[in-house]
Amino acid sequence: MSTHIDLEFHSKRHTYFDLRRIIKAQAQGFDEAVTGYLSGVFIQSSIAVGVIFDHVRQDASGRFADGHLMQTSRVVAVRKEGRFWVMTTENSRYVIATFLKGVGRKSLRHHLRLLAKQSPIPRPTMH
């Protein structure tokens, strides 16, 4: 009799590329305070998912620890600040360091189209 065990991991190592982008973002500075930096980001149903780094509310129990996958609250705005996209959610502001390969940027474009339909204020477009 063989036993099958399913493991589910809720964290991931940041790649060298992710960390380089995060360092560049931290050096750039932003218009308002940043809650954290996300890599491997995609947006689905107005919720962003990514791997967190340097979250301001990290705690000793590991909540919001570097390398953990996290889901944001509802994304209410996304705009380009310098070389990076910044997402404002219902509760926080995240810098997008990198997108999930193949789907991340496409999900951002889709979300920007949805936001434009909801608001008469023009939203930034991808360059």
Feature tags:
22% helix, globular, 5 strands, alpha+beta, 31% strand, five-stranded mixed barrel, 2 helices, 127 residues
What does this structure look like?
This protein has 127 residues and is an alpha+beta fold. It has one domain. It is 22% helix and 31% strand. It has 2 helices and 5 strands. It has a 5-stranded mixed β-barrel with strand order 1-2-3-4-5. β4 (84-89) and β5 (93-96) form a beta hairpin. The longest helix has 15 residues, at 104-118. The chain is globular, with a radius of gyration of 16 Å. Residues 6-10 have low confidence and may be disordered.
Question: Helices and strands, in N-to-C order?
Answer: HEEEEEH
Q: Reading side by side through the largest sheet, how are the strands ordered?
A: 1-2-3-4-5
Structural class: alpha+beta
Q: How much helix is in the residues?
A: 10-25%
Distance between the termini: 57 Å
